[in-house]
Amino acid sequence: MAKNPVVFIHGLWMHSSTWKPWMQLFSQHGYETYNPDWPGDGTTVEESRKNKNAIANHSIKQVADGYAKFISSLSSPPILIGHSFGGLMVQILLGRGIAAAGIALDPAPIKGVWQLPISALKASFPVLGNPFNLTKSVSLTHKQFRYAFTNAIPEEESKTLFDQYTVPSPARPLFQVAFATLNPSAENKVNTKNATRGPLLITAGEKDHIVPPVLSKAAWNQYRDSPAITELKTFENRGHSLALDHGWTEVAGYSLQWLNEKGF
């Protein structure tokens, strides 16, 4: 029996190429894999950095709709695996009922998650600290990246990941999440009561600054009124870079195991 394809979704400040090791691993386990770009992304990190205006001002809905369009081209509903804002996209698309299953790795908050940990505010300040960033694309310095993503790994490795994968990203999605509580039509709203959707795994990194465990747990709690499977896994001593740093195989291995247990 053919397995469902897997679509990997990256988050802010990361290029889609971060998923290449995961794609190789999942391919070895018989999955057909894809890693579509966000609207405006370049095909390489270098292209994205040179043309940062192309990614500017894209909204959560525009990104989600772009992935939905890609999903519609597949022969069967895919498994979605997303990190950070990619994890938010996973939940939006799974809630729409167009995917077979979803794994949201340290996901950006869905509407209803109101907690504002100090570390998350500090990590988001390079964008949210300037309201004129709303329609722009924003790049992180290595110091900012280290605090938000790689605080749990050695600095040398952090610099390598920064040089290899980071790209400018639209500021609008971060503003949309930050002010979702005040917006009844917030684009990070998810159909958490969908009883017929596929299973969902939400993860947390114990030392994650930008998406602390309290946010992942709060997201998990939003699904309490749905009988559909929703599970939470916390990885100890891991930061927000858990999907791309030297420990990525732990997270990928657990994801594969979870999918197999759910029949995928």
How does this structure look, described?
The chain has a single domain (6-261), classed as Alpha/Beta hydrolase fold, catalytic domain (Rossmann fold, 3-Layer(aba) Sandwich). Helices cover 37% and strands 12% of the residues. It is built from 10 helices and 8 strands. α5 runs antiparallel to α6 (142-148). The chain is globular, with a radius of gyration of 17 Å. The mean pLDDT is 96.
Distance between the termini: 10 Å
What do the pLDDT scores average to?
96
- DSSP summary: helix tally: 10
How many whole angstroms does the radius of gyration measure? Answer: 17 Å
The main β sheet shows up as: 6 strands, parallel
Could you name the CATH homologous superfamily? Alpha/Beta hydrolase fold, catalytic domain
**CATH topology type:** Rossmann fold
Residue fraction in strands: 5-15%
Order of helices and strands: EHEHHEHEHEHHEHEHEH
Unreliable segments of 5+ consecutive residues: none
Major sheet strand order: 2-1-3-4-7-8
Compact overview of the structure:
This protein has 264 residues and is an alpha/beta fold. It is built from 10 helices and 8 strands.
Secondary structure: elements and pairs:
Blueprint: E1 6-9, H1 20-28, E2 33-34, H2 45-50, H3 60-72, E3 79-83, H4 85-95, E4 101-105, H5 118-128, E5 137-138, H6 142-148, H7 155-165, E6 169-170, H8 172-178, E7 200-205, H9 213-221, E8 230-235, H10 248-261
Parallel strand pairs: 1-2, 1-3, 3-4, 4-7, 7-8
Antiparallel strand pairs: 5-6
Helix pairs in contact: 5-6
